[in-house]
Design brief:
single chain; 140 residues; alpha/beta; three-stranded antiparallel β-sheet; 29% helix
Amino acid sequence: MTLNAINAASKIDSDIHVLVAGNKCESVSKEVAAVPLVKKVLQSESANYENYLAENLTPLIVKLAEKYTHIIASANTFGKNFMPRVAALLDTSQVSDIIKVNGPDTFVRPIYAGNAFATIKSNDKKKCITIRPTSFDPAP
């Protein structure tokens, strides 16, 4: 799912940084660093991140978000758990389950159980976005 989010991020900016947080996550960081679209890997290793609890990861993501305009995650159980918390703490609206990027502040998402599509324009300085993984090919 991370590879799909990386591909979605590449539609916004070519300078893609990926956070790898966990316990004993060095091998995962090396794998992510090998993805050609990734320019930088931020690794945060702690036993607190071992079970990927939103309560533990959210403060880390919010702190790191100070330097970024877009925070992107997959719209899976994990992303749906922490991203609303991140958006709330950053005082920004979340753009959920996007299926297309039209520009750095314009996105398409399904509505009405997928029977229609809405184009969303976000004027927030920071954008918290979840992507529908099946709508973006994995990054090479």
